[in-house]
Automatic annotation (TrEMBL):
Residues 954-980 are annotated as: Disordered. Belongs to the Rab3-GAP regulatory subunit family. Residues 960-976 have a biased composition (Acidic residues). This is Rab3 GTPase-activating protein non-catalytic subunit. InterPro entries: Rab3GAP2, RAB3GAP2_C, RAB3GAP_N. Residues 769-1356 form the Rab3GAP regulatory subunit C-terminal domain. The lineage of its organism: Eukaryota, Metazoa, Chordata, Craniata, Vertebrata. Keywords: Cytoplasm, GTPase activation.
Length: 1379
């Protein structure tokens, strides 16, 4: 994890290149130089192991090694050449004077037999076009492809060459000249390029591409976009000209800016920073310095292009060119006439085209193009140093820093933005510098830049390193910028060249640059002796560390390790090797401990690799000085290695099977569990029944016992201290997995229990923790355990082995004390949610405990006669075992009942039934069992009368009610079907009630069912059936005290609030409200509110009956079964009900009247009635008060107006009821629902309470029934009318209406003849009748005859209408006589 030099390419025939460029230099073999370089490399200092700061202290005394004068000149020939390497490594240019060599990469087989990349000669020749000019600078610029399939990739590389004549010429890779430009007559000093880079942060100015050309007194910048388009056009034109032989080639013009640099004595190098904008403070500072006190400011700071030059007088100068101050110039081509330019172009490419002989010469045209004047640009400020001369400047990749070399052997670091020298290195004469920018890589996939998407959390951190090559010393150094230390140093020889392009591909933008990223080398070191090209690889973490801060470096190594562990493509061997190296590189023990912990918690590292890594680290620590080793790290490493070894041993024992185990399990369950055959059969029957009910098809996740516990989960639950292993319980799933690793195969008979227990005991794990693991596994695998009862014998063997361990059962345990060991077993079983497995575990524990008790008794009571088999010791533990077994059997049967599936389509089937435990029932209070069964009843959607029949109470009353309901034949098939489906569950319910005779007393069960249904109704008020069934359950309670208390609690808790809202709403609208209003104010629809009001009426009626009945019977005694005497917890519903105060009967009756009124309004949609308006102020104030308080109620003297309103309301109720009665002859009138039959009786019942005459209501009812043609019902009610004379007068009119319709409105011939024979008085009276008031005109004449007869019987002979009635009798007889 340190700096390294990597060779990525090699020049194929370096000797041929040198011989071509240096014709006057004698050919010399490169073996001497190679041997010299090898000897130098053998003396490479191991700088990483030394103190990083020691060399700085001796730097002042160190003498700079000067190159020997007698060294062969052939080794330093590369220093005299102009070099340029493309940033994409696809082309290299080496030029000297007029000659140049182009090298292109090729893959060839090297000496070692591997494929390696070599730079081979692709073109060589002379580049000068004028006499005496030489190459002074060159760069290789890769141009982006415009093809859609290769967006962002380089298409071809353009070679830009500057000459001493001032010309700048552009060539292809094959040496064909594309364009020649004369921008200034002075020699070209430097060519530099800037390509597009995506801004790293918002707000950073986006820099454009450009090519900058430096002359001694001028600087020319060519826009990158213009240059890119021109070069593409020239390349296309040259290709077409070469194909067609056309000489008319018109090179496009270039847009450039030319600045005349002033106020510097000499300039040798430059750096184009790009466009920048001053902050407001810097703008005001510059304005005040330049303009004085009265300087003015523009609204926004102007955008400026910044340039830095180095040379002399001053040492470095800072220039700022305001954008828009100089218009771009359109340059003239090198030759004015296109044909002459073409001839010169073909002259340079004659060898390639092959059109003329080498000996042929053409006269050279001396015509010079017109020169554009330069725009003066004054230096803003500089770093004055009269003796110091700058030699080169190198800009950092992020354009914030620049490294400058000078003739004093110094390297100076400049802050570009502030114009300050912030650091200086000395002892680097003739230094060559470059930059390396490194991204922080936390994901291994990002190592390949082509697959690195932009992070959604923002850009990664970036570190910059300065690379300095000192040829006089033959050393290459890597430095952290600003305050960073030296992070790398290499002896590379004295005849190398350091190349740093500082740019990438031209022609990209913010879209295309995000695609394919080329593999580029930021710096390149060329060795003139061997021809190798090497680059420097610098890890990011070196930017975080210096000689005083290794902690940051270690933390980065930890991050690197985390990224390595997350990588999916790497093999386990690679991860193991890299992890070992990282652990060795980390210096701080605490961070090394953190790295080891993260490694052990990884899920991608196999067990063998973890063991190897931990062993290697432990060996490394043991090999160090004991005083310098961190004890915590050493203990962690040794303890984790011990745990890994324990995991390996357990897996090994499991893989060997159970063949060599010394213990054999007894397969006879009766002897294992110490039970008789009858008891064992009973237990097996209980388990079989439970398995059938709980084993119904359901969605669940299968538990695969073969899935091994991950090593990280194993280690996370184990702690090793001083050679003792202690378990730390985490999540239940991990704890069960750990127990499965230890014991499951032993329970299945596939592994040796003795060897497992012995291995675990040797590891130091306490028996109590092993017991907890064993029971957790057993209780969590109930389904598998119940399938195969042979596992009981294996559990017996394991529990016996664990009980015999040291520290399990105390030696001081006697028969009169409770052992904590057995108490732990009982506690685990009582908390288990799987009663079947818990019962088996308790039976096994009871058997093992009984054998231990007998052993203790034998030791304590030794007798010479010996002990017979029938003798059995008693102890306090065995008594508690007996209680627990009885409780577990009860829970098993209760859970069997609760596991019964709900019938298909049941409304309560979606309610989940929680698993019960012994402890849960003990802490649920006296009503815990009844509450669980009540939830089951709701889930089963059991009709209350079916539940009552199943409990065997009031069967005679139920049968009598069934005989009274013969009319409801439509419900009988459904009810019978429900009864048949409920038979199996009813049998289970009766069995549970036999186990819980006190807790499941019918009154207690009905009370809890009542409360459960009302709670569910409160959750969903739209289900009015829930509330109706709740009231039915309430009516099934025999004890009036319980019934009274439950009713009071229901009213005050759930009912009264919604009831008051319904009353106020109906009083406000004066009729039955619409569905929308009901939902808004009451929280339910109109149909649900009708059912709700009916249930309220039944509830209050039941409450009044219970209040009367409570005076005639005593309060019940609540008892509990013997095994459950220690139950504790919240008070049950029945206990709370018995604590309720008695209600005030008149107040309940007052509310009952209101509920009946409201129910009638909703049931029959009665309009124009305000229910609260039927009561006076006292009555209104008494509503919705606590029913147990005494309120001021209305007196008997009522206002006649209110009485009249009440009478009208009751009459409307009776009329509405009559309208709801079916009038079909096929359906008898009595075929009504029971609640509908009660309305007339209810109205008559309420009449005296509301001070309304009941006889008026009966007469109205009789008239309404006759009016609707319901004569049989009317005859029954007519017998109850007291004032028959008044009723007869009313019925006489109704009879006349029927006859008038039959005679006058049918218009038959027989009717007309009969009408003519009638007495004139009767005809006149009949014509005065209006038959339109009849609701049913299709009444048989025989019924009308019976009606007239009843009228005659009811009227006295001295009545004024008696004669009219006689005439009606004659008329009816005449109409009924045959014609």
């Amino acid at each position: 994890m340190s700096c390294c030099l990597l060779e990525f390419c090699r020049i194929q025939d370096l000797k041929s290149v040198r011989d071509f460029l240096f014709q006057n230099l004698r050919t010399a073999t490169t073996s001497t130089a190679a041997e010299h370089n090898k000897n130098t490399n053998d003396k490479d200092l191991n700088w990483e192991d030394a103190d990083w700061g020691s060399w700085e202290e001796k730097e002042s005394d160190e003498a700079v090694q000067e190159e020997s004068v007698s060294a062969p000149h052939s080794a330093s020939w590369l220093q005299d050449c102009v070099l340029s390497l493309s940033p994409t490594n696809d082309l290299m240019v080496i030029a000297r004077e007029q000659r140049a060599v182009f090298l292109a990469p090729k893959w060839k087989t090297g000496d070692s037999g591997r494929e390696e990349m070599q730079l081979a000669l692709s073109w060589s020749g002379a580049l000068n076009a004028e006499e005496g000019e030489c190459v002074s600078s060159a760069i290789c610029i890769p141009l982006a492809s415009q093809k859609r399939s290769s967006t962002g990739r380089p298409d071809w590389t353009c070679i830009v060459v500057g000459f001493t004549s001032g010309y700048v010429r552009f060539y292809t890779e094959s040496g064909v000249q594309l364009l020649a430009q004369l921008l200034n007559e002075d020699p070209v000093l430097q060519l530099k390029c800037r390509t597009y880079e995506i801004p790293r942060h918002p707000g950073v100015t986006e820099q454009h591409e450009e090519l900058s050309i430096l002359y001694p007194c001028a600087l020319v910048t060519i826009d990158g976009f213009s240059l890119f388009q021109s070069l593409r056009a020239c390349r296309n034109q040259v290709a077409r000209a070469a194909a067609a032989g056309n000489e008319n080639v018109q090179p496009p013009p270039l847009a450039y800016k030319k600045w005349g640099l002033q106020d510097m004595d000499s300039i040798v190098d430059h750096a184009s920073i790009g466009i920048m904008t001053l902050c407001p403070f810097d703008q005001m500072k510059n304005a005040s310095i330049l303009g004085g006190y009265h300087a003015t400011l523009k609204g926004s700071p102007p955008a400026m292009s910044q340039y830095i030059t180095v040379g002399a007088g001053p040492f470095s100068g800072f220039y700022y060119a305001i954008e828009g101050s100089s218009q771009p110039l359109l340059s003239h081509v090198a030759l004015a006439v296109a044909s002459k330019l073409t001839s010169a172009l073909f002259n340079a490419a004659s060898g390639w085209l092959g059109w003329k002989n080498k000996n042929e010469e053409e006269p050279v045209q001396k015509q010079k193009p017109k020169m554009e004047p330069a725009t003066p640009l004054a230096v803003r400020f500089g770093l004055p140093d009269s003796r110091r001369h700058g030699e080169s400047i190198c800009l950092s990749p992020c354009s914030t820093l620049a490294a400058v070399t000078d003739d004093f052997g110094r390297v100076i670091l400049l802050d570009v933005a502030r114009g300050l020298a912030i650091r200086m290195w000395k002892g680097y004469r003739d230094a060559q510098v470059g930059w390396i920018q490194v991204l922080e890589v936390l994901n291994e996939r990002e190592l390949d830049p082509r697959s690195a998407p932009p992070s959604p959390q923002g850009p990664s951190r970036v570190a910059q390193f300065l690379v300095i090559y000192a040829p006089r010393r033959g050393i290459l150094e890597v430095w952290g910028t600003q305050q960073g230390a030296r992070v790398g140093a290499f002896n590379v020889g004295k005849h190398c060249r350091l190349l740093y392009p500082g740019y990438k591909i031209m022609g990209l933008n913010n879209v295309t640059s995000q695609g394919w990223q080329p593999q580029t080398q930021q710096v390149c070191l060329i060795d003139a002796a061997t021809g190798s090209l090497r680059t420097v690889n610098v890890p990011f973490h070196l930017a975080l560390s210096d000689k005083k801060s290794e902690r940051a470096r270690d933390m980065h190594l930890v991050k690197r390790l985390g990224a390595l562990l997350k990588a999916k493509e790497l093999s386990s061997e690679t991860v193991e090797t890299e992890a070992k190296n990282i652990l060795q590189d980390i210096k701080y023990p605490a961070i090394k401990k953190q790295a080891l912990e993260s490694l052990l918690s990884s899920k991608n590292v196999p067990l063998s690799s973890l063991t190897s890594i931990a062993q290697a680290l432990l060996d490394s620590l043991n090999g160090q000085d004991p005083e310098g080793v961190d004890e915590a790290l050493l203990q962690l490493c040794s303890s984790q290695l011990k745990l890994l070894q324990l995991y390996t041993d357990i897996e090994k024992i499991h893989s060997e099977g159970a063949g060599q185990d010394s213990t054999t399990a007894d397969t006879d369950l009766s002897s294992v569990l110490r039970l008789s055959e009858e008891e064992l059969s009973r237990i097996q029957a209980l388990l079989q029944r439970y398995r059938e009910e709980s084993g119904r098809p359901s969605v669940s996740f299968a538990q695969d016992p073969g899935v091994a516990l991950p090593v990280r989960s194993f280690l996370s639950q184990m702690e090793c201290e001083e050679g003792t292993v202690r378990l730390s319980r985490g999540q239940d799933s991990d704890w069960i997995q750990l127990g499965s690793l230890f014991f499951w195969r032993c329970l299945c008979g596939e592994s040796a229990p003795y060897r497992i227990c012995q291995t675990l005991q040797d590891s130091g794990i306490s028996p109590q923790q092993l017991l907890s693991l064993l029971l957790s596994v057993w209780l969590s695998r109930e389904r598998e355990v119940l399938k195969s009862l042979e596992t009981v014998s294996c559990l017996h063997s394991l529990l016996t082995l664990l009980s015999s361990m040291t520290g399990a059962v105390e030696e001081s345990w006697d028969l009169q004390s409770v052992s904590p060991w057995w108490q732990q077993v009982r506690s685990e079983c009582s908390q288990a949610e799987s009663p079947g497995a818990a019962l088996l575990a308790a039976l096994v524990g009871h058997s093992v405990a009984k054998s231990r008790v007998n052993q203790v008794a034998e030791k304590k009571f030794q007798s010479p006669e010996g002990m017979t088999d029938s003798w059995e010791a008693l102890s306090l533990d065995l008594e508690q075992w007996g209680v627990l077994l009885r409780q577990l059997e009860d829970c098993l049967l209760l859970q069997t009942l609760l596991s019964c599936p709900a019938p298909r389509g049941a409304a309560g089937g979606a309610v989940s039934t929680s698993r019960i435990t012994v402890r849960g029932l003990l802490e649920a209070g006296r009503g815990g069992v009844a509450d669980s069964v009540a939830k089951w009843v709701f889930k089963q959607d059991v009709v209350p009368r079916l539940l009552k029949a199943a409990l065997g109470k009031r069967r005679a009353a139920e049968s009598q009610e069934g005989e009274g309901e013969e009319g409801s034949s439509s419900e009988q098939p459904e009810t019978e079907g429900e009864g048949r489906g409920f038979q199996r569950a009813a049998e289970l319910l009766r069995a549970v009630c036999q186990r819980f005779p006190c807790s499941l007393d019918p009154d207690l069960l009905f009370a809890h069912c009542c409360w459960e249904y009302v709670v569910q109704w409160n959750k969903d008020p739209e289900e009015g059936r829930y509330l109706a069934w709740s009231v039915e359950h309430l009516r099934c309670i025999c004890n009036a005290h319980i019934q009274h208390g439950i009713a009071v609690m229901m009213w005050s808790t759930f009912i009264v609030k919604r009831f008051s809202a319904a009353a106020f709403l109906m009083d406000k609208v004066g009729k039955a409200p619409k569905d929308r209003l009901c939902r808004r104010d009451v929280g339910m629809g109109d149909s649900a509110m009708t059912s709700f009001l009916g249930s309220c009426s039944q509830l209050l009626q039941t409450l009044m009956e219970a209040d009367v009945g409570s005076d005639e019977m005593g309060a019940p005694l609540l008892e509990v079964e013997d095994p459950w005497q220690c139950v504790e917890g919240p008070a049950s519903i029945v206990e709370l009900a018995l604590e309720q105060r008695h209600v005030h009967y008149p107040l309940v009756q007052h509310h009952y009247i209101l509920t009946s009124i409201l129910h009638a309004i909703m049931r029959f949609s009665i309009k124009s009635v305000k229910p609260l308006g039927l009561f006076d102020s006292k009555g209104k104030n008494a509503f919705f008060r606590d029913l147990t308080t005494i309120q001021l109620l209305p007196s008997e003297d009522m206002d006649p107006t209110l009485v009249s309103l009440r009478q009208q309301f009751l009459l409307k109720v009776l009329s509405g009821w009559v309208q709801s009665v079916p009038r079909d002859d096929s359906c008898p009138p009595l075929a009504l629902l029971p609640q509908d039959q009660a309305w007339p009786a209810l109205a008559v019942e309420l009449a005296p309470v509301l001070q309304v005459s009941a006889d008026v209501l009966r007469r109205h009812l009789v008239c309404e029934l006759y009016n609707y043609g319901l004569d049989p019902l009317a005859e029954e009610v007519m017998l109850q009318v007291e004032d028959q004379e008044v009723l007869a007068s009313q019925l006489l009119i109704l009879t006349g209406q029927r006859l008038a319709f039959a005679l006058l409105h049918t218009q038959t011939k027989e009717g007309m003849e009969l009408l003519a024979r009638l007495p004139p008085m009767l005809c006149t009276w009949l014509k005065a009748m209006d038959p339109q008031d009849l609701k049913n005109t299709e009444v048989p004449l025989s019924r009308t005859g019976r009606l007239v007869s009843r009228v005659i019987d009811a009227l006295p002979e001295n009545h004024g209408q008696y004669g009219l009635a006689l005439h009606l009798v004659e008329a009816v007889e005449a109409m009924g006589a045959p014609q």
